[in-house]
Amino acid sequence: MQTMYNRTITALNKMHPEHFPLEEFTYERFKFSWNSVQARAFGRRLPWTAMVPFADCLNHTNVQTKYDFDVDNNGVFRLFPTGNNHYPQGAEVFNSYGRRPNENLLMDYGFAILDNEWDDVSAELRNTTSTLYGD
Amino acid sequence: MSHAVGVSTELDGDELRQRFYEWLQNHGARFPKIKWPSNDTESGSRGAIATENIETGEYMLEIPACLMMSPPNAFVDPEIGAILRENENKLLHGDLLITVFIAHELRKGDKSFYSPFLSILPEPGNISEWEESDLAHLQVCTAVPVPVSK
After folding, report:
1. ipTM for the predicted complex
2. Which residues, 6 or more positions from B65, have their beta carbon under 8 angstroms from its beta carbon?
3. Which residues fall within 8 angstroms of residue A43, CB to CB, at 6 or more apart?
4. Type and span of the H or E element at B125
5. What are the C-alpha distances in Å from B54 to residues A41, A96, B31?
6. CA nearest to A52 within chain B
7. How far is the C-alpha of B128 from the C-alpha of B110, rounded, in Å?
8. Whether the Cβ atoms of residue A11 and residue B91 lie closer than 8 Å to each other
């Protein structure tokens, strides 16, 4: 993170010191911005990475949701439940951040969910044929 | 209440959320069946609640492009827009463009158009910020430590 800050902000400051003063583009501010983008931004179905206020306030769980953007040049980001997903009155409204195992959720967002269907374990299997049928 | 990294304001949490709501609505955001924040979730932690049934395929949340912190909106910033555009895909590849744009808006404080949004953002709960003692809870007590080669 420190390296990324140095490369980016120091370079901008060298080129345009009047617009990128180091005392205002602080490491803390940069880190907060970068971490907020990693935790909240949308991008997979957008032409670029972007922050979408309010859409980023929904919690994650394994539900089917989709979003679209600028359909027929409407200039709007829209989020909706898909598949067999819907939200009855009084239920929590979730968004899915993707098919993520707990390890991934914990590292990127600092939470995990119970009975996560995308969790996996790896087990090593040895070929025992030679033991069973060997001479 | 002062924000850790820039957006300084005298407002408390409820007032900040109220300002955020008004900002969203004044600029055409729509989410008529969603209440946020609410602690009436099954888990009890803060989340969003459906105030009426939301059907499959129903646009439950609509946010106009003008409210998004996106490259097109960054490029029209009077001070650094042109510089950001020049360095897009070069120095400011990937998520760096939006990161620098956010840092620039934080720097403007309450003068930023995005201040009602930025001032409700929590400190990101990335695991890299956790205390050692909390990280220790993630260890499986039955697991045997294995030396990792360098």
Report:
1. 0.84
2. A69, A70, A75, A76, A77, B72, B73
3. A49, A50
4. none
5. 24, 16, 11
6. B68
7. 29
8. yes
**pTM of the predicted protein model:** 0.84
Confidence of residue B61 (pLDDT cuts 50, 70, 90): very high
A132 pLDDT above the threshold of 70:
no
Cβ distance B53 to A87 less than 8 Å, yes or no, reads yes
- The model's confidence at residue A130, banded by pLDDT at 50, 70 and 90, is low
Q: Which residues of A touch B62 (CB under 8 A)?
A: 76-78
CB–CB of A48 and B70 under 8 A? Answer: yes
Nearest CB to A32; choose among B5, B47, B68: B5
Cα B46 off chain centre by? 15
- Within 8 A of A4 by CB-CB distance, chain B residues are 96
In 3-state terms, what secondary structure has residue B107? helix
- Give the distance from residue B17's alpha carbon to the nearest chain A alpha carbon, in angstroms: 11
Write out pLDDT tens, residues B107-122.
Answer: 999 999 999 999 999 8
Chain B hits for A105, Cβ within 8 Å: none
Q: How confident is the model at residue B51 (pLDDT cuts 50, 70, 90)?
A: very high
Pick from A49, A86, A90: CB nearest B55: A86
